[in-house]
Design brief:
By secondary structure, the chain is α/β, with parallel strands linked by helices. It has four helices and five strands.
Length: 105
């Protein structure tokens, strides 16, 4: 299951992670975000132990969304060593997300 990220655990789970992290910036009211949810959950299962997959609600964590210039959702960021190495805006097919995570491994 994808972990729920918040302002209180973002630094520990993302910046200090020793494995790559795929972060899904979403909101509960966002239709495309809901459509992506099963794909995000599948990736969380497939990469368990190799990479982290997390979701962060932009309505509840506007400061983090602003820090990364999130203007539209869903937006997916791949972090490695605490730095963003890839940004994908809008709905993505699973292959694209897999390729981004694989690139970070």
């Amino acid at each position: 299951m994808a972990m729920q990220l918040t302002g209180s655990n973002f630094e520990t789970e993302v910046y200090q992670s020793d494995i790559p992290v795929l972060v899904d910036f979403y909101a509960d009211w966002c239709g495309p975000c809901k459509a992506m949810a099963p794909v995000v959950e599948a990736l969380a299962e497939e990469y368990r132990g190799k990479a982290k997959v997390g979701k962060i609600n932009t309505d509840d964590n506007q400061d983090i969304a602003m820090e990364y210039g999130i203007m539209s959702i869903p937006t997916f960021l791949v972090f490695k060593g605490g730095k963003v190495i890839k940004k994908m805006i809008g709905m993505q097919d699973k292959r694209t997300l897999v390729a981004a995570v694989e690139e970070a491994l």
